[in-house]
Amino acid sequence: MTSSTTFQPVLERIAEEVERTPRRGRPADYIPALAACDPRRFGMAVADLDGTVCGVGDWRQPFSAQSLTKVFTLALDLAREGDALWEHVGREPSGNPFNSLVQLEYENGIPRNPFINAGALVVTDRLHTRTGDASGELLSFLRTESGNPDLSFDPEVAASESAHGDRNAALGHFMASYGNIDNPVPTLLEQYFRQCSIAASCADLALATRFLARHGIRADGTRLLTRSQAKQINAIMLTCGTYDAAGDFAYRVGLPGKSGVGGGIIAVVPGRCTLCVWSPGLDERGNSVAGVAALDRFTTLTGLSVF
Ligand code: GLU
After folding, report:
1. Active site residue ranges
2. What are phi and psi of 273, to 5 degrees?
3. pLDDT digits over 99-158, tens only?
4. Which of 49, 172, 225, 244 could form a disulfide with 216 if both were Cys (CB 3.0 to 4.6 A apart)?
5. How many domains does the chain have?
């Protein structure tokens, strides 16, 4: 197998192209602590199955992982409770904004998928019930898989989200009214905001995502997920991972991916490598403009895709 350093020239070409692109979207401003990010920042990393990693630009700069963390909490919970999880959260694209409330009432408090906020709150709640510390479990997993013991929560981002968290609080209380949340809603929100606030770099996140390219096997060779569960998470990333632009992302990039409002996107080439790209300027759907463009170029230039 070729090493990920083979990708270095491709990454350099992509970075040059991004540099020449004038329009880069706008950073998320509904979380004030994220609004100040410079939309011209750009980093991209590729990790091989064996942990070799290469990158360009700001690929070692920590940024706010936000919804990228939803992939890892889903994996950690699915590994513990298996298919019982699917009685509490669905697996279909929502076709609605990530923080929408409307569908929840029609569907009796069962969120459409684990990657919209309502679904992620359910997953975090269930992981918290099983571990007693969902965000701590997540942080420890990310530290181990990335090999970076310095990864941590960003208390400023968590406090900023908490101070502007009415929508997530509404989602939590609404689902609790249907009996789909176990823990007190304030406890759940504290866990969820801490989870979203984790700061990590493209290198860290590409490395931490490798278990999905390794069909469920962690960095130390132990199994987190069955092969089938790894396939299932990759499939949900492809269909639901990039807000209500997942169809366009599949069309352009052709890989399972998950985006976050911090401007990061993780992507998986099963059996081959993982990627993480970061640029804080978002499009109107919430996906990083330069991030999607860079992944589009990567799969076009290398021919790597699940299709
Ligand atoms: N913490 C953010 C929120 O709940 C995450 C959103 C995202 O990255 O999609 O609003």
Report:
1. 67, 70, 192, 243, 261
2. -165, 175
3. 788 889 989 999 999 999 999 999 999 999 999 999 999 999 999 999 999 999 999 999
4. 225
5. 1
**Looking at residue 283, which CATH number applies to its domain?**
3.40.710.10
67 is in an annotated binding site: yes
Q: Is residue 71 part of a domain?
A: yes
Q: Residue with the nearest Cα to atom 2 of ligand 1? A: 66
* Helix/strand/coil for 58: coil
Give the 3-state secondary structure of residue 56: strand
Residue 195, in any domain of the structure: yes
Task: Report yes or no on 275 lying in a domain.
Answer: yes
Render pLDDT for 204-215 as a digit per residue (tens, 0 to 9): 999 999 999 999
* Domain of 122, in residue numbers: 4-302
Query: Is the beta carbon of 67 within 6 A of some atom in ligand 1?
Result: yes
State if residue 121 touches ligand 1 by the CB under 6 angstroms criterion: no
Beta strands in 194-293 (DSSP E): 199-200, 257-259, 264-269, 273-278
Residue at 307 is within a domain:
no
What region, left, alpha or beta, does residue 132 occupy, with left being phi > 0 and alpha being psi -120 to 50 degrees? left
Burial 4-19, CB ≥16 within 10 A → b, else e: beebeebbeebbeebe
